[in-house]
Amino acid sequence: MTATRPELERFLRRCEKQEFLDALTSNWLNDLFPGIRRLIGCDQGKVVHNEGDAALHSWMVLTAVTSICLEELKREADFTELLAALMHDWKKPVTRVVGPDGNVSFPGHEAMAGAEVDRVAVLLDLDQVEKAKLFCLVARHGEFTCFPELSADKQREFQTSPFVESVCLFQKADATSAHSAAGGHWPVYWSQIQPTD
Questions:
Q1: CB 27 within 8 A of CB 69
Q2: Cα(35)–Cα(32) distance, integer angstroms
Q3: How many CB atoms sit inside 10 A of residue 80's CB?
Q4: Which DSSP letter does residue 126 get?
Q5: Mean pLDDT in each 10-residue stretch from start to end of the chain (197 residues)?
Q6: For residues 26 and 32, what is the distance between their CA atoms, to the nearest angstrom?
Q7: What CA–CA distances, in Å, run from 98 to 105, 145, 162?
Q8: CA triple 146-147-152, angle to 5 deg
């Protein structure tokens, strides 16, 4: 039986690492997010994802969203932000490509997960604002990671978005959960996306 919104929200707010990883193989989570079990063992390569497989990265993003909200934004993460952490790399396993140089990429995984937002929104009774924010965070998170390289128009689109705080939060959570083989993590672009002056 598929979990309801309150059940999923309770789970995402309180689950520990092993409980999260176990849930990825469960029927109840795969009923909501078909194939999400394939995150387990989905090798992301070591160049920009030295932290481990896509399942571990997703767990790290979920915990980062929670802690950044509490420590920096002085609030709890909302359900949409938690849901985006779970969903954002859901389609990596079906888009995984290994190049001739051995580097791993996942072309189109954001768009594929974004295409599921309407269905998920119906199942979890999201309102129109929640659905729009979830789509932004899931379908466009790849753009956040390369914010300085975007056109001026695309940068302004994110900077003036009604979801700009969540965009900044999600970019930082994703970046700090992606560990480089050379050490450190992806750059954080919060101050560029949402300038303080």
A1: no
A2: 9
A3: 24
A4: -
A5: 87 97 97 97 74 88 98 98 98 94 90 98 98 98 95 96 97 88 81 82
A6: 10
A7: 7, 20, 37
A8: 130
Tokens, residue 18: 């092993």
pLDDT for position 104: 86
Tokens of 189: 């672009």
23: left (phi over 0), alpha (psi -120 to 50) or beta: alpha
**Distant-in-sequence contacts of 62-67, Cβ < 8 A, 24+ apart:** 62/12, 62/20, 62/86, 64/172, 64/173, 64/174, 64/176, 64/177, 65/169, 65/170, 65/173, 66/13
Asked whether 28 and 3 are in contact (CB, 8 A), the reply is: yes
For residue 54, which amino acid is it?
A: A
Location of structure tokens 């932000």: 81
Rounded-to-integer distance, Cα 41 and Cα 69, Å: 29
State the Cα–Cα distance between residues 83 and 138, nearest whole angstrom: 9
132 exposed, middle or buried (CB, 10 Å; 0-12, 13-18, 19+)?
Answer: middle
Q: Which residues contact 146 (CB under 8 A, 6 or more apart)?
A: none
Q: What is the pLDDT of residue 188?
A: 94
Cα–Cα distances (Å) from 63 to 51, 75, 99, 119, in that order, read 14, 14, 31, 25
Task: Residue 126: count other Cβ atoms within 10 Å of its Cβ.
Answer: 20
Sole residue written with tokens 């985006």: 84
